[in-house]
From TrEMBL:
A Pfam family recorded for this sequence: zf-Tim10_DDP
Gene3D superfamilies, per database record: Mitochondrial import inner membrane translocase subunit tim13 like domains
Keywords from the UniProt entry: Chaperone, Disulfide bond, Membrane, Metal-binding, Mitochondrion, Mitochondrion inner membrane, Protein transport, Translocation, Transport, Zinc
GO terms assigned for molecular function: metal ion binding
Taxonomic lineage from the root: Eukaryota, Fungi, Dikarya, Basidiomycota, Agaricomycotina
Compartments reported by the entry: Mitochondrion inner membrane
Protein name as catalogued: Mitochondrial import inner membrane translocase subunit
Domain notes: The twin CX3C motif contains 4 conserved Cys residues that form 2 disulfide bonds in the mitochondrial intermembrane space.
GO cellular component: mitochondrial inner membrane; mitochondrial intermembrane space chaperone complex
Organism whose genome encodes this protein: Panaeolus cyanescens
Similarity-based family: Belongs to the small Tim family.
Length: 100
């Protein structure tokens, strides 16, 4: 670890620092993606429950099950659309930055 912070003239020091930086950024991206999915599930669960379960009881009726299923499907479809759009936007921005 002390090699990372040394100021020697080693030519391998720069690529190692760059690789470490990239690994750290990838780990952060993965953590953010996980947090976003967890937030989506929590919000969709809360909203779908509020919408579909009008009289909480010991079990779900068939109509409540069907409502929950459709509600979650809509949330996942919307999430997938937004994710694809966001990913393509990031890719376009990175490509534009690379050409500058």
């Amino acid at each position: 670890m002390s090699d990372l912070f040394s100021r020697g003239s080693s030519t391998n020091a720069q690529p190692d620092v760059q690789a470490l930086k990239e690994q750290t950024m990838n780990a952060i991206r993965q953590e953010l993606a996980l947090a976003n999915v967890q937030e989506l599930m929590n919000k969709s669960g809360d909203r779908c429950y509020t919408k579909c379960i009008t009289k909480p009881g010991d079990s779900l009726s068939n109509s409540e099950k069907q409502c929950l299923s459709r509600c979650f499907d809509r949330y996942m479809e919307a999430f997938n659309i937004v994710s694809r759009t966001y990913t393509s936007r990031l890719a376009r921005e990175r490509q534009q930055e690379a050409t500058l």
